[in-house]
Design brief:
IolE/XylAMocC-like; single chain; 10 helices; isomerase activity; Xyl_isomerase-like_sf; two-stranded antiparallel ribbon; isomerase
């Protein structure tokens, strides 16, 4: 059964974490997704403290983002953090503009680099994949868009598909969902406000309150391998509003399933 989670990056401006976890639990979430700032030193003691806060609020963290430098150079520490927190799926979330390849060969090689980085984690029984933004769908002069090359260069990589960023990148989410249905292990569920609206929230919207056809998108995602639907908003002004309205939208589209 698919589960509904919440990307904690969306709550970075609403700390402390204990209050965030309490709010999310009250809204009906049972899972959250971690990101780098939550475990900056990769200290096991930090992870144990974070786990205790999660447990006090009935939450788990089955998925998490880690930067590529940590994934490549701090393997044992990342694995220990994953063990403590119960993380089952690791996603590399971003590539800075200055590090992005300029051609098809470079993007394919980047996919191969991720493939190499994934090996110790996959050997430990963890899922390992890439989380997209919009730049992976920008055309290049000598080949298909970078997202296709990343997945080709890393044939064992999973994909955490951020549907709104696909659309922001000018691509058709339905085409990509269908083409890579068996590679999608998690989905970021977020929405885009109508043009000129929600400028104080960087043009994002609560799920179901923007322009993306989430009913149709959920139907398209149904046959994929996605196990986690994760609510995200890059700059919300009201965390409670975001959390409550977004989970209500997703639950309504999955009325036949029990919301975990």
């Amino acid at each position: 059964m698919r589960t509904i989670g919440f990307q904690l990056y969306s709550a970075r401006n609403f700390l402390p974490l204990e209050s965030v976890f309490r709010l999310l639990a009250q809204a009906g979430y049972r899972e959250v997704e971690g990101y780098g700032a939550l475990y900056p030193s990769l200290d096991p003691g930090e992870a144990m403290s974070l786990k205790a806060k999660l447990e006090r609020n009935g939450l788990t963290m089955p998925t998490a983002h880690f930067g590529l430098d940590l994934l490549e150079h701090k393997v044992d520490r990342v694995l220990e953090i994953a063990r403590i927190l119960g993380i089952k799926s690791i996603y590399c979330p971003y590539l800075a503009p200055e590090d992005r390849p300029a051609d098809a060969a470079g993007w394919r090689a980047f996919g191969a680099r991720l493939q190499g980085a994934s090996k110790p984690y996959r050997n430990a029984g963890l899922d390992f994949g890439w989380h997209n933004h919009d730049f992976e769908f920008s055309p290049i002069t000598d080949g298909p868009v970078p997202m296709e090359l990343i997945l080709a260069g890393g044939p064992d990589l999973s994909w955490e598909a951020d549907v709104a960023w696909i659309a922001k990148g000018g691509a058709d989410p339905f085409v990509w969902i269908k083409k890579y249905a068996d590679r999608i292990s998690s989905v970021h569920v977020k929405d885009i406000a109508p043009a000129g609206e929600k400028l104080d929230e960087d043009g994002w919207a609560d799920v179901g309150h923007g322009t993306l056809p989430w009913g149709d998108l959920m139907a398209a995602l149904a046959p994929t391998s996605a196990k986690h639907f994760i609510v995200e908003h890059d700059n919300p002004s009201d965390l409670k509003r975001l959390a409550e309205r977004s989970i209500a939208t997703i639950a309504a589209f999955h009325a036949e399933e029990r919301v975990p």
